Amino acid sequence: MKTITHTPVWLTVLLGIVLLLRIPSFFEPFAYGDETIYLTLGEGIRQGATLYQKVYDNKPPLLYLLAAVAGNVFWFKAALAFWNVATIILFWKLASALFPNKERFQKASTVIFALLTTLPLLEGNIVNAEILMIGPIIAAFVILFTKKLDFKNIFLSGTLFGLATLFKVPAAFDLPVIVVYWLITAGLKKDDLKITLRRSLYLSLGFLAPIGLTLVWFFLAGALGDYVRAAFLQNIGYLSSWRPGDVAKPFIERNLPLLIRALVVAVGAVILFLKRKVLTPKFIFFTLWLLFGLFAVALSERPYPHYLIQVAPSVSFLLAILVTEKTVEQSLTIIPLFLAILVPVYYKFWVSSTSAYYLRFLRFAVGQVSKEGYLASFGQRVPTHYKLADFVTSSSRPNEKIFVWGPDSSAVYALSRRLPPTKYVADYHINEFSTKKAEVAKLTQNPPKFIIILPDAKGFTELTPILRKSYLLISEIDGAEIWRLSGSFK
Q1: Which of 207, 414, 463, 478 makes a 20 to 30 Å CA pair with 271?
Q2: When comparing pLDDT for 67 and 250, which is higher?
Q3: Where is the chain membrane-spanning (predicted)?
């Protein structure tokens, strides 16, 4: 296929618009829960703590490594902006490779993709794994559709899929897309199957290579078990976790929705195989990519908008066919696009207001809203987190520990660059993966300098004895209690 060697003017203009649209994100506070968790773990890495063993979250390590490099929310957002620009360029290269003589298609698909991954509609302004992992995935497909399918190129593509998975495990569901595509388009003759099997083996080896290296690294660090449990095994329990009442049900009944979704993917692949002679390979590829992506999006049945970014590439291609092509497949795109709409509607995905996001920033930029009012617009607790962090940083040394209990506790850790004496940095970590009794035992053994109880904190009566025995209530900030380790226990 044709190799693109220069960037057209329209793409340069589009990338400029994307950076312009991202300017408000550079002024966002430490407010979004996931971001503050990532930055807290990043700070743990900077302080030499071993991931998963000494500081915990349940995603693979690349996101936390990026947070460690960034150091704060501004540079985290800046890294996201330039990563997104690079991803858009990769997407355009894929569009150009698949439709080399159709600039209208290239423009339409790339503009749609740029908007879907940039605007707050799908939380494109927030640093989340989905927007980071689609870059390596698209790069892998660029190689597979533009290079000779020899061992080196297929292995490299597999490695990119592996790197994407090290941002978040659902990225792995994009890897079988190309394998099923090969099976459908190459045919089922013995020689064709051998070729597909060999390519799939190369792809799998490449996929496992970066993941295997992380296993070796954590083994040498003495944290292999912690890594495997946190980044991979505990995510199994994440499936259908939006239905906690189903936990006690039999396996088949509990996982029936998941099995039905898998059946939809399988049926869709079979239909594409049966109709392969009347469909173009590109349409087959886009539809497969969407089917597997929607399966990954709905794994946990949680309605977070940023999950949908995983299907932004395939949706962009299909929408471009719908608005630019004049073929039978223009009409056929309605079927996969209907599924793309059905999933977020059925699972009631939340929607972020794009207009409200930019209007809020404009009011702040022109001075209509004060800094504290701007912070509060991201959540009433946000100004309190900043005040608490200011207190902590002025009253403790960088290596001293604090413990924060309550919603969004990770924001205080991230803002103050202080770590807890236990590995958990969010209240739901303790609720889901430990016990309050166990955490109090750790706090007793390794008491932090400060224990902070946030205003909306709930249900940690086990802390009361240690507070009464070893701590003094020294201050309250917006209803948050600050307890200091008493002199005899320093």
Answers
A1: 207
A2: 67
A3: 62-92, 112-145, 165-188, 200-220, 256-274, 283-300, 331-350
